[in-house]
Amino acid sequence: MSEDGLDVDALIDDPATKIVVCCGSGGVGKTTTAAAIALRAAERGRQTVVLTIDPAKRLAQALGLRELGNHPKQVSVDGFEPKGELWAMMLDMRRTFDDMVRVHAGPERAEQLLANPFYQTISTSFSGTQEYMAMEKLGQLAATGDWDLIVVDTPPSRSALDFLDAPSRLSSALDGRMIRLLTGPAKAGGWGLRKVVSAGFSMFAKAVSTIIGGQLLTDASAFMQAFDSMFGGFRERARKTAELLRSGGTSFLVVAAPEPDALREASYFVERLSTESMPLAGLVANRTHPVLADLTATAALSAADKLDSGSENAPLATAVLRLHADRVALDEREQRLLARFTKAHPEVPVISVPALPSDVHDVAGLRDIGDRLAGV
User: Fold this and answer.
1) Per-residue pLDDT at 360
2) What are phi and psi of 270, to 5 degrees?
3) Are the CB atoms for 38 and 48 separated by under 8 Å?
């Protein structure tokens, strides 16, 4: 267990832990963290699957993801002989949405929806679609019962809160009055675009048509009419996944870089999890820069100045001393930021994971990250 209080091994060894969700703003190392936790869990005996969103090429190769589609595949690479099993997949947002449509809409209506240009637009670019589909895929993986631990990497986004907000936002958008008004006759009184036009709103309708295109408006109308029958199932799945995220077997790990914006985002997310009664395991302060030598910045700079002013020419030693002084200053800054977070959230365990000199590109690298996460 780490002295900071976050015991990753206790978390993944506990058979009651069924889902670990790695959250945080974009670019903080969530995907690598999720993969490292999953690998460590498998090596410690768990039947584990990791759902990745957008892995870097080298990390994908480390997990054998080059051949993966939208379904889990067992990781089998040299140097990896776990006590349990590790399966990995990379989310295919469009295929997940397509599969959901086929389940809820029935064969004939599903084909209408899948061929609709408006659907093809929202299934790949509508705000919140990727987050919603990550949650949908999590629900599918949990329903199979094939794994006793699911590790989830959340989509890269500006805000960590997007993962929690996306289902309701997407649901509201597709159920919104405005989109229904613009996309076809409503059930009550037949008020649709034509009635709006005839009622004197032709300028408004023309403006809308100009902005989104007349053909897209027609496609949207057909989409909403076909989508209407399956919307209840769409909402119900979102509700069930939200319940899964609140269940006792789920734990959230917030991943943040030791930077003001990332830690501010982490604070928002921690507060939101508390409000939503979602279980938080702790904070991973990723890519920190600890100082290993017991030499203060002042002493290092003083020694460098003496070397500069002396008769002996030692440019390499001087450069190393000044570099060490910069590293001490960086470490002190990061420690102040983390102390501020801890003061605001004293109940949240924290583990610091030092930055590596290069990207993780193999199982050994993931194992190293796992050791650091566990405080080994």
Assistant:
1) 82
2) -60, -45
3) yes
Q: Which of 313, 311, 309, 312 is CA-nearest to residue 301?
A: 309
Radius of gyration of the chain (CA): 25
Question: What's residue 211's pLDDT?
Answer: 47
| Structural contact between residues 131 and 162, judged by C-beta atoms closer than 8 angstroms | yes
Place of tokens 């979102």: 238
> Cβ atoms within 10 A of the Cβ of 202, count?
11
Q: Which stretches does DSSP call E strand in the chain?
A: 19-23, 47-52, 73-74, 85-90, 149-153, 250-256, 280-288, 350-354
* Half-sphere exposure for 88 (CA within 13 Å, toward CB): 30
d(CA 258, CA 36): 19
Q: Residue 280, Cα to own-chain centre: how many angstroms?
A: 15
C-alpha span between 37 and 29 (Å, rounded): 12
Q: What are phi and psi of 288, to 5 degrees?
A: -80, 170
Asked if 14 contacts 44 with a C-beta cutoff of 8 angstroms, the reply is: no
Residue with tokens 């832990």: 17
pLDDT single digits (tens) 161-198: 777 777 667 666 666 554 555 545 444 444 444 454 44
CA 327/CA 338 separation, integer angstroms: 16
Q: How far apart are the first and last CA of the chain?
A: 8
Distance of CA 363 to the CA centre of its chain: 21
Number of H helices, E strands in the chain: 17, 8
Quote the CA–CA distance of 363 and 63 in Å, as a whole number: 8
> Residues 6 or more apart from 299 whose CB is under 8 A from it?
none
In terms of residues, how long is the chain? 376
Give every CB contact of residue 121 below 8 A, 6+ residues apart in sequence: 216
Element (H, E) at 170: helix 162-174
Pairwise CA distance, residues 116 & 118, whole Å: 5
Residue 189, Ramachandran bin (φ over 0: left; ψ between -120 and 50: alpha; else beta) = left
Q: Give the type of residue at 72.
A: P
pLDDT in tens, 299-343: 888 888 888 777 667 788 888 998 999 999 999 999 999 999 999
